[in-house]
Write a structure and sequence with these properties.
This is Assimilatory nitrate reductase (NADH) alpha subunit apoprotein. By secondary structure, the chain is of the alpha/beta class. The chain is built from 29 helices and 34 strands. It folds into 6 domains: 49 residues, Single Sheet (N-terminal domain of TfIIb); 266 residues, Rossmann fold; 186 residues, Dimethylsulfoxide Reductase, domain 2 (3-Layer(aba) Sandwich), CATH 3.40.228; 117 residues, Beta Barrel (Barwin-like endoglucanases); 107 residues, no CATH class; 58 residues, Orthogonal Bundle (Arc Repressor Mutant, subunit A), CATH 1.10.10.1100. The strands form 8 sheets. A 7-stranded mixed beta sheet has the order 5-4-16-15-14-6-7, with helices on both faces. The longest helix has 19 residues. The structure holds ligand MGD (2 copies), iron/sulfur cluster and molybdenum atom (MO).
Length: 870
């Protein structure tokens, strides 16, 4: 069978993939050498896509109140309830919450149905938690939401600055591209992040600024630009607001950044000294109560120096989700219309209304994510449809959001699984076709539109998201407006509408694609917009903006700290973000044993001085408390974070580690301009968690833990779990039998009741099915060895260690080849390896996707080769 070209469903890099059906009904996946975003490369997540496609846990049929139902009656119910709610309480009593992971065609239908036909702007998206501040910052500076940069700029830059971006873990293929440029032409790399991350390894400069102080830092840079006469008079002649902006910047107190003069000077020198500078920014910028200001603080420096719209330079917002950009194009945010047109603009409204043949278009923005769920809580939203997102986990004050959804009179959830924290609360569950089964387009960070193509049949009754919404639209009475036959037809309509936007002089115009045939759509190659008869090329090269006067804007900014200041009750700042091998709430990556091996439980990075002061030992558990929630996490003591700050990942949920739902602690402070929540600067308290015992379990079947702390992860042959509780079970055997659901299986047990320690192994026909290790202190076990034992004879399992005649690989670092930390350290020491390349040659580690290369570099720094030691 020939390979099918598609696009990776994870991050906004938008890597091309080649898919081939394997004999087991799954897919073999490799990077597409012809795709401009990745040229054949994939990261660990993209490489492991094949492991995430099984049907276990898939939602295969519509369900109403937990009972399987047919599509006809279910969609009629959805249409009737939405219609009745609008009739009784008005259009603003219903809402859609959608996602930057939906395809452009899905997103277009959702936006058209809500804004054009239901007649409310109450459609918002998880992009509010992600890109909203960038959208608002772009609109203030440029008059429209345009990303000026392209990936090619990274190859040509002399300096790359990462601001609030852990590119090595979150956009790994772009990071590899930066590293390649560094090797080829000595590109300098600066990282601005309060935390030392994998992206800092080998960087020329890391600025560990105070959380939230980016505006001050870029104001300092702007002032230095002026002082050094590095501003560009020709560029400034075409800019509004420069005088006020320079004045506000000059009034900034540099000390609020927490950086010393030498650090500030080094940064300004590098930035000013390299004309070809690309400033990449991401969630450390956007997810802040000053997020929009942070964006404009960065844009100000590029605009003042004229370093924008030219090869190798410019501000570059890297998008998170695969179609974050496409969602902005269709107008999926509550304050946008469609194709970058504005809700507030009567001419735009009227043009869209005529084009859609719509009864009405709202003239004011709808509810933004945080306010939308507050309105659900207050009973103002009475019917809610959530698509392709898990807000009960990922919105701030997640416990309150969960309660609000549970209390909503009518909630519809479209997902590929019915097990998420959000799906469990729904009245109606709609089974969606997953990646690999559906067709459409996505737009990546550099505005390149790529096709996702189906290579597998949709299982059971699963159907694409656009199909579900179009059907509801027809059942609500708009039969002609929603009678789409497929994604190609929706795409053509979207492209035609963009021509109207182009007619208003807007940037997003793909009207040259409005008449493509189904066959041309099927073979559409990656295409960067704009693609219009009269347009193409770079934005802002001519110094012109999309404001009415055609001038770019600099925005005068006074730095503000995060919304709330630390207090005696909540002295710690809680920074949150991502890990290398998991995607958001893990509904897909969590199914891959390889990806789950890298970091298998939720953790808190804590500075050694705080740990010492509070009596927190490595690998014990800590309790985090905030005004809105609590968590229990594993302590990782590291000076990568600053004192009085804690970093915790966002990925764990009620399904995988209920005490690790970090958004339960995050306050719902928002940026006043963009409405984006401040997900990285909540306040919390930190205390040791008094565990009476710690446990570790492996099993070939799913487990049902019920302890104060537990975290489940997949392994090749089953599952693993970390456990802890504040009380000892009265009987270890009963406890273990309940955990594993093994009432009748043979047990081997050793225990030391005085110490509260026990080790239990269950065997069937001589083979291990499950084992539990428990003790009063964190367990030093060879976990990566133990997870391989279920299904084998595992004679010495209760020792908990690797038998003396076998090497212990240690925790997995390279997930592509399953190579552990100890194996790499041993090879470095025994074979005298000196570089990441040599480690790759010796062990293959780091030679496939390259995502672990920064961590291998860190190991090289730590280890001493034998020869050198001698
Ligand atoms: N592996 C993986 N990759 C992903 C995703 C995933 O879930 N997993 N998700 C995708 C999505 S949707 C997104 S949006 C992107 C996000 O990509 P990133 O934004 O790169 O990821 P984060 O880890 O959320 O945050 C980046 C950094 O911001 C820093 N930070 C916190 N506060 C501040 C501050 O005040 N100033 C500055 N300068 N930095 C600060 C944090 O310490 C953190 O290291 O990743 C995408 N890629
Ligand atoms: N504290 C904290 N919170 C954060 C962040 C942070 O950095 N810190 N980051 C924020 C950001 S940037 C983002 S983007 C959000 C992400 O947050 P969410 O969007 O809530 O998280 P996901 O896990 O990506 O949810 C996607 C859901 O879609 C389902 N799904 C998968 N494929 C399909 C499909 O084809 N169709 C349908 N209908 N459903 C499908 C998945 O099973 C899953 O339940 O989290 C935000 N929350
Ligand atoms: S960098 Fe990784 S996650 Fe992102 S699109 Fe490429 S393969 Fe997918
Ligand atoms: Mo995101």
């Amino acid at each position: 069978m020939t390979e099918i070209r598609s696009t990776c469903p994870y991050c906004g890099v938008g890597c091309g993939v080649l898919l081939k059906r394997d004999t087991a009904g799954g897919l073999e996946i490799r990077g597409d050498p012809d795709h401009p975003a990745n040229r054949g490369r994939l990261c660990s997540k993209g490489s492991a896509l094949g492991e995430t496609l099984g049907l276990e846990g898939r939602l295969l049929s519509p369900q109403v109140n937990g009972i399987e139902s047919g599509w006809d009656e279910t969609l009629q119910l959805v249409a009737d309830r939405f219609k009745q709610t609008v009739a009784d309480h008005g259009p603003d009593s219903v809402a859609f919450y959608v996602s930057g992971q939906m395809l452009t065609e899905d997103y277009y239908v959702a936006n058209k149905l809500m804004k054009g036909f239901i007649g409310s702007a109450n459609i918002d998206t998880n992009s509010r938690l992600c890109m909203a501040s960038t959208v608002a910052g772009h609109r203030r500076a440029f008059g429209t939401d345009t990303v000026p940069g392209t990936y090619d700029d990274l190859d040509e830059a002399d300096l790359v600055v990462l601001v609030g971006s852990n590119l090595a873990w979150c956009h790994p293929v772009l990071f590899q591209r930066v590293l390649t440029a560094r090797k080829a032409r000595g590109t300098k790399l600066v990282v601005i992040d309060p935390r030392r991350t994998a992206s800092c390894d080998g960087a020329d400069l890391h600025l560990p600024l105070a959380i939230g102080s980016d505006v001050a830092l870029f104001n300092v840079l702007l002032t230095e630009i002026r002082r050094a006469a590095a501003d560009n008079p020709d560029a400034l002649a075409r800019v509004e607001g420069s005088a006020e902006t320079f004045a506000a910047a000059a009034a900034t107190d540099p000390s609020v950044t927490g950086l010393d003069e030498a650090q500030l000077r080094a940064f300004c020198k590098l930035w000013i000294g390299h004309e070809k500078v690309v400033t990449i920014f991401s969630q450390g910028v956007n997810q802040s109560s000053a997020g929009t200001d942070k964006v404009n603080a960065i844009l100000n420096c590029h605009i003042a120096t004229g370093r924008i719209g030219k090869p190798g330079m410019g501000p570059f917002s890297v998008t998170g989700q695969p179609n974050a950009m496409g969602g902005r194009e269709v107008g999926g945010l509550a304050n946008m219309l469609a194709c970058h047109m504005a809700l507030e603009n009567p001419a735009h409204r009227s043009a869209v209304r005529t084009f859609w043949n719509a009864p009405q278009i709202p003239d004011r923005p709808g509810l933004k994510a945080v306010d939308m769920f507050r309105a659900v809580d207050e009973g103002r939203i009475k019917a809610l449809w959530i698509m392709h997102s898990n807000p009960a986990v990922t919105l701030p004050q997640a416990d309150a959001v969960r309660e609000a959804i549970a209390a909503c009179p009518f909630t519809v959830v479209s997902d590929i699984t019915g097990n998420t924290d959000t799906a469990r609360l729904a009245h109606v569950l709609l089974p969606a076709s997953a990646w690999g089964e559906k067709s459409g387009t996505v737009t990546n960070s550099d505005r390149t539109i790529s096709r996702q193509r189906a290579a597998l049949p949709a299982p059971g009754k699963a159907r694409p998201d656009w199909w579900q919404m179009a059907d509801v639209g027809r059942r609500m009475g708009w039969s002609g407006e929603f009678d789409y036959t497929g994604p190609a037809e929706i795409f053509r309509e979207h492209a035609a509408l963009s021509g109207i936007a182009g007619g208003f002089g807007l940037d997003f115009d793909i009207s040259a694609l409005a008449a493509i045939s189904d066959a041309e759509y099927d073979t559409l190659r990656p295409t960067r917009w704009p693609v219009a008869a009269k347009r193409g090329g770079r934005f802002f090269a001519d110094g012109k903006s999309f404001h009415e006067d055609g001038r770019l804007r600099m925005i005068a900014l006074t730095p503000r700290g995060p919304a709330a200041a630390p207090s005696a009750s909540y002295p710690f700042r809680l920074n949150t973000g991502r890990i290398r091998d998991q995607w958001h709430t893990m509904t897909r990556t969590g199914r891959s044993p390889r990806l789950s091996a890298h970091l298998a439980e939720p953790f808190a990075e804590i500075h050694p001085s705080d740990a010492a002061r509070l009596g927190i030992a490595a690998d014990t558990l800590v309790r985090l408390t905030s005004p809105s929630g609590r968590a229990i996490l594993r302590a990782q003591i590291t000076d990568a974070v600053q004192p009085e700050t804690v970093f915790a990942p966002m990925h764990w949920t009620g399904e995988t580690a209920p005490s690790g739902r970090i958004d339960a602690l995050v306050a719902s402070a928002i940026d006043p301009v963009s409405g984006q929540p401040e997900s990285k600067a909540a306040l919390c308290d930190l205390q040791p968690y008094a565990a009476a015992w710690y446990g570790f379990a492996v099993s070939s079947a799913p487990m049902a833990p019920d302890t104060a702390y537990w975290a489940l992860a997949r392994t090749t042959g089953g599952w693993r779990a970390e456990l802890a509780d504040d009380a000892l079970p009265s009987n270890w055997e009963d406890f273990a039998r309940a955990l594993f659901g093994l009432p009748k299986v043979t047990l081997q047990m050793v225990q030391d009741p005085a110490r509260g320690a026990a080790r239990l192994a269950f065997r069937q026909e001589g083979r291990l099915v499950a084992a539990l290790f428990a003790g009063p202190r964190p367990l030093a076990l060879a976990r990566d060895h133990l997870v391989t034992l279920p299904g084998t004879e595992a004679e010495h399992v209760l020792a908990g260690q690797v038998p003396a005649d076998m090497p212990d690989p240690g925790p997995t670092l390279c997930s592509c080849f399953g190579i552990g930390v100890n194996s790499i350290l041993r090879a470095i020491e025994d074979e005298g390896l000196m570089s990441v390349e040599e480690v790759g040659k010796a062990l293959s580690a780091g030679t496939n996707c390259g995502s672990c290369r920064p961590e291998i570099a860190a190991l090289l720094e730590r280890a001493t080769p034998k020869e050198a030691a001698e």
